[in-house]
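Need the bound structure for flavin-adenine dinucleotide, inputs here:
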Amino acid sequence: MTFDVAIVGGGPAGVAAAVALRRVGLGTVLVEASRHETPRVGETLSPGVRPALARLGLPVAGAVPEAATESAWGTPDLTTRPAVLNPYGGGAHVDRAAFDAALADRAETHGATVLRGCRVRRCEPTGARSWRLTTEHGQVTAAAVICATGRGAGLVRAVGARRQAADRLVGVAVEYADPAGDQVTLVEAARDGWWYSVSLPPAHRVVVFMTDSDLCRAGRYPDPARWADAIGGTRHLGERVRGLRPRTRPRVVSAVSHRLVRPHTVRPWLATGDAAMSVDPLTGRGVLTALLAGEAAGTAMAHWLLGDRRPAADYERGLDARYAEYLAERAEVYGRETRWPHAPFWRRRAASSLAASLTASSTP
Ligand SMILES: Cc1cc2nc3c(=O)[nH]c(=O)nc-3n(C[C@H](O)[C@H](O)[C@H](O)COP(=O)(O)OP(=O)(O)OC[C@H]3O[C@@H](n4cnc5c(N)ncnc54)[C@H](O)[C@@H]3O)c2cc1C
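Answer from helper R.:
Posting the output first, comments after.
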């Protein structure tokens, strides 16, 4: 199979890139390892997601409006921010696997070829101008590649790129059966990190503990008995899950913030979404950032194939600028929690907050 552009990864970024490429009539294949059959994290859509999806002609499948955000951050007491007070309207909660599956279906409607259950094992240059992808089910060749493989940034070594990580954040996630559902996002800081919980359609709740990978191991958070014990030590979250039955065992997912560092390439190749730049789930903007970056990468790649590389260079500079802004914002938000100044999780973030303010004050 031969295409103009092969996109590896059928999450929000890959789908947005596919739609942008199809709009200018380029032959596009979206190669996705999964069939979107297993649970995925990243279930709160920020208010900006709806207009971004509408612009791309993509659906918001099965979204339940978010009623409010409650947080115990910097203080043991809960602060409530009702969604109606947000000038952009409220966010929404979705079942991410179902949401992502619906996006990939719509990429097909836009004319992209979608290969599901098809992991790309290798990506390498072939001939004078093409790329060859070796998948579980055969080979695909294309003039250009967009790598949208998510936070793990799989396959970026094909062009000698590497991740520059800003932390070691992981999430430990457990789903509970929760027929009542409250449509509230709860965030609660703790000594080793912070918790969040959201109720999701149709009748479950996801609870995630965010911590650093070494603290996760030392604290044995993925152990079900230890997990229950840690929830028992919270002030607000424990009340929210009292009496609920876990549907899954604790599983650990990477939540590292990184920016991809890549060398100059002659053959058209771009990374997008979390593969190019990933942000802390605390921002609640990962999906929006991925959609915007995916669309921009698709547009830049279309120009590159016509012989104009400038939009691709602008795209990379745009990501650099957004990542610098994000690091400053992250430092400011973590700096608001001062209750555990000697605990490693918070001490590390206070140090990066200090570094960010020194960088800002020394920038002319
Ligand atoms: C704990 C946690 C909580 C989060 N909460 C939120 C939230 O509430 N709101 C929010 O907006 N964001 C949240 N995020 C972030 C959000 O999930 C991501 O930013 C977003 O999914 C990025 O989209 P993407 O398309 O770049 O990558 P992904 O969604 O990760 O998609 C990448 C796709 O590539 C596929 N793939 C990978 N390797 C290959 C391969 N070799 N071959 C073929 N396919 C491959 C994967 O199967 C996957 O479908 C959270 C993240 C974490 C870790």
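Comments: The mean pLDDT is 91. Residues 8-14, 31-34, 41-44, 46, 119-120, 148-151, 154-155, 171, 208, 253, 255, 273-274, 281, 284-288, 290 surround flavin-adenine dinucleotide (CB under 6 Å).
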